[in-house]
Amino acid sequence: MEYHRTFQIGQREAMDFYLYQALRHRSLGAVGFCAVGLLICWLYSAQAQGSPVSFAVSMVVTFVAVLAAILGGYYFTIRNKVRAAIRQRGRERYPQEILINGFGLRCTASGREVKVAFEKIREIRETGRAVYIYMTENDAWILPKAQMEDPAAETGRLREIFDMVIESQRLHMRKG
After folding, report:
1. Rounded to a whole number, what is the largest CA-CA distance in the chain?
2. How many CA atoms lie within 13 A of 21 on its CB side?
3. Are 141 and 132 in contact (CB under 8 A)?
4. Strand pairing of 171-172 and 123-126?
5. Is residue 45 classed exposed, middle or buried when 0-12, 13-18 and 19+ CB atoms within 10 A define those classes?
6. What does 98-110 look like in DSSP terms, one character per residue?
7. What SS3 class is residue 173?
8. Helix (H, G, I), strand (E, B) or coil at 130
9. How many helices (H) and strands (E) are present in the chain, helices listed first?
10. Which residues are CB-contacts of 141 (< 8 A; sequence separation ≥ 6)?
11. In angstroms, rounded to a whole number, what is the distance separating the alpha carbons of residues 127 and 155?
């Protein structure tokens, strides 16, 4: 039972992670805000004379426009923060070495080595682009699938390892 790989973490990987975080934690609020926009549109449209089709179209356009504005705001805010962090760090990419074995997980990045027992891992989440190993609610090690030699095989291997050592309520990986 072992997995070992070095990933290059840069702007793209950081952007993917922070966008995932924003959508994961704020999507319900964004949809709620859009629903309020729909309600306001409905209230104003109810006063106007017009066809039901134009009314429905205006509702859909309002929902999409508000949602696009919210998502665009997330994207540009996160992009600016990631770029500022890269400027502050002084380099665009850094290597992140991950070793997972029977003793736990070891991550070496930016000259620091961290060893963590499996019980200390908060949760593990898999997306279409990466596997995130969370140490806190907002901090995770990023394992980008695009940098894996065989993403299906490697994520399958990670699933096997984590299924053995992480409780199911902390493990959010795709099946198959």
Report:
1. 70
2. 18
3. yes
4. parallel
5. middle
6. EEEETTEEEEEET
7. coil
8. strand
9. 3, 8
10. 96, 98, 105, 107, 109, 132, 133, 135
11. 11
* DSSP-assigned letter for residue 120: G
Quick check: helix, strand or coil at residue 74? helix
Note whether 17 and 140 are within 8 A (CB).
yes
Are 173 and 131 a contacting pair, CB within 8 Å?
A: yes
pTM of the model: 0.79
Give residue-wise pLDDT tens across range 128-153.
999 999 999 999 999 999 999 999 99
Polymer length of the chain: 176
- Quick one: tokens of 31? 């949809």
Rounded Cα distance between 32 and 73, Å, is 16
Tell me the average pLDDT across 151-168. 93
Query: How is residue 88 written in tokens?
Result: 């502050």
Find tokens 């973490």 and name the residue: 9
pLDDT of residue 176: 55
Report yes or no: 144 and 13 within 8 Å, Cβ to Cβ.
Answer: yes
